[in-house]
Give the backbone structure.
Amino acid sequence: MNTIQRLGILLLLVTLAAGGSYGLWFLYNWGSFLWQGDSSSQPKPGEIPVRKATPVSDSVGSGKVIRVATFYPGPIEAPRLQDPHFARILRTAISQCDVIAVHGFRGPGRGPFLPFFDSLRNDRPLRYLVSEPFRDHTIRQFSVVFYDESKVILDRRRSGPVEDPSRVFRWRPLVASFAAAEVPLEQAFTFTVVAARVDPLRVSYELEMLSALLRTVASQHAPEDDILLLAHLEADEETLLQTFHPFVPAVTGVPNSARGTRLASNILLDPRATCEFTGQSGVISWDGLLGQSGEIPPADILFLPVWAEFSPQEGVNLELFTSFPRSKLIPGIVLRLGCLSRLRGGSPDIPMSFLFAPF
C-alpha cells in the first residue's frame, strides 16, 4: 500500500469520525431544540429565543393538550368579586385553562372567596389549592391554583403551601403535583407546578430564592416529573435566563401588562427535560377575555394571563431507550435522546430548607 493510499484511508477515517461525532452531538441535543419550534425560529448562541403570541385555541377540554397558565390581575379582595365585570373576566381566564395559578387574593382566609370558587364548578369539575394554610385570621395575600379534575389528577401527598419559617418570601409559594387524567397513568405526563408571586420591592432577592426553591423541588421529586414555574416575576426574559438556568421562559417577546408595555409574568420550564411542551404559548388578549361583548377593558386589571400547552402523553422513558439493543433502536427514540435525559437534582446554592405542608 503506497503513501497516497494510506493518506486516502486516513482521510476517510477522519471524515467518518467527524461525521459520527456531529451525529451524536445532534442526537443528544435534539431535545433541547424541540421546545423552540422549527429550525427557522432557532435563536443564535447567546440570543434570547422570541416566542410570538399565539391565539388561544379551542382545544381546552378536548384532551389534546394540557394548558397551564399564570395570572395576576392585581389585588383581589372579596368585594372586588362582587363586580360582575371583573368576576366574568376572572372566570373566563380560568375556564380557558386546565391548570392556572391566580395570584393576588387578599383576605383573612379562603372563606370570603368560597362563593366565587364554588360558582366555578357549575360547568366542569374544578378544584383549587391555596398557598396559605391560614392558621390564624391574619389578612394575607395568597395564590390559588385552580385545576380541572377531568384533565389532571392531583397528588395530594406532594402538594401544598411551602413552609417558609425564615420568611424568605413575602408571599408564600405553592407546590402542586399533577398527572394527565385522560391517558393511562403509566403513559401520563406528570408535572409539578410551583406557583409564586415576587415582591416588586425585592425582585432580585426573591428571584434567587425562587431559583433555589425550584432546585429543591426538583431534587425531592421523581426524575420523570417535570417542574414548571407559574409565576408573576416582575423581570424581563434576559434576567430570567440568567437567574433560572437551565430553566427558560415559555413566553418571550410578548407583553402581558394591560398597557402592553412589558412582560412580567411567565411559565418557566427546563427544555432539556420537558419535551411535552408543544411550543404553543402566549398571552390571553383582551379579545380572549371579553369576547364579543363590546365591554371596555377595566382599568384596574394590571396584567393579562400567560399560558403554555403540553402534551398529556409522557415523553419516552430513558430506561426504555437504554434497554433496546443498539442494532434495534428505532429513529423516533434516537431523535428524542436529548429530551429523554431527565437532568434533575442538585442542592440549592443558598442554604435554606423548604418544607411542604400537604392539605
